[in-house]
What does this fold into?
Amino acid sequence: MISRRLFGAYVVTSLDEIAWLFNIRGSDIDYNPFFISYAIIEVYEQTNANRTRLYIYDKARRLTMNPNDSETRHKLHEHLNTGADGQCQTGEMFCVEVVDYVPEDVTKAVQAVVNDDVNNKVWVTHLCNYAIYGVIPEAQRVQERSMIALSKAQKNEVERKGMENAYNRDSAVLIEFLAKIEQDVKSGKRWTEVSAAMDLKNMRL
It folds into this structure.
């Protein structure tokens, strides 16, 4: 999509989009499945090649650590098709280069993309922070809706079916709850907003 839109690079700054794009999760933030990171995706139109860099904390340990959940079968470097040191192997077409997260290094990398070719257009979203936004000259900066967010919004058949099943189950519980309240009110039982909310919550579990 980047090459078709004639952009030289796309800088991803939203944590949920990075987690979705690379299909990985983390625990850098309490009660949140995301990890502190940046990603820069470059496309070289002449060779139709690309370079993808992912900036994360503690990359050496994370790349080689064993998965800590039963669903995951591969170490992070295997999942990203990169070396245990985060470097792409020669000849690999699809590989994610993993770099230690240092905010200053990210802004320098964006500046390097800009300086590499004055005709390079760099795509950022409206949620981009000013540290990144400010190093991209206006003539080379393009701020548009996130293509990742648009892709996330397009649900596949399995996802659509799952949502449909969830709504059907929840609708059945809600109907049962409303029928219960109607009967209780007619019999004189007193309900409050709190007791109704707690009862509905327990029925939905």
Summary: The two ends are 41 Å apart (CA to CA). The domain at 9-153 is CATH 3.40.350.10 (Creatine Amidinohydrolase; Chain A, domain 1). The chain is about 40% helix and 15% strand.
